[in-house]
Amino acid sequence: MKINTTGKSVAEIVTNNVFKPLNFTETGWYGEINEKLVAVVRKPNDPNWTISKSTNGDKMNMYVSSRELAKWGYFHLKKGDINGKQIVPNEIIDIATTVQSPNSLDLELPQNGYLWFVKDLPAKKSEIGELVSKGCFQILGYTGVTLLVIPQHNLMAVRAFNSFGSPKGFDYLADVREFGNTIMTCLMN
Fold first, then answer.
1. Tell me: the pLDDT tens digits for 130-145?
2. 26 Cβ contact partners less than 8 Å away, ≥ 6 residues apart
3. Cys-Cys with 131: which of 7, 24, 144, 184 at CB 3.0–4.6 Å?
4. Distance between CA atoms of 64 and 147, rounded to whole angstroms?
5. Could you tell me the pTM of the whole model?
6. How many CB atoms lie within 10 A of CB 17?
7. What is the domain range of residue 171?
8. Number of domains in the chain
9. What is the domain-level CATH number for residue 116?
10. For the chain, what percent of residues have pLDDT higher than 70?
11. d(CA 61, CA 37)
12. Which of 99, 73, 69, 61 lies closest to 154 in space, CA to CA?
């Protein structure tokens, strides 16, 4: 899918305007299983796991190392300004990492920016732990990857599972909340 105003795909825009200026070499897009990437842990022949062959924006697959995921968090923490160079306007970062969810939504649902979960009001169904302070933001990947940005402490925390699906009885929501709670507990001690 090409964007009408630019004639480029989302993958091309992000690669050229963000990944290249940030010197990302362990991040990109793929449409085939790649022998250079760690395979996703999944049940053999799982009919729910598919690889999109598209890198044009309709169902892109992005890969990223834990190291560069932390850099992605730092990029957002610094509002797009890296080493004195504004890579992306800080207004775009602000929109992405502040609550954009309509007030008419159920207050127990997560509050969202654009692609980021944002800690604002307490919400029972939030992916962000209750100990995580207001103003923090978190992004989740399909295979269990989590990036939590805690601006008050100038901190990014990353975890990577690389696993599709959860074992029987696993409470994903409780687990991802506990990740943030554990980070906050470490900061408080």
1. 999 999 999 988 777 8
2. 63, 64, 65, 67, 68
3. 184
4. 12
5. 0.85
6. 13
7. 10-188
8. 1
9. 3.40.710.10
10. 82
11. 12
12. 73
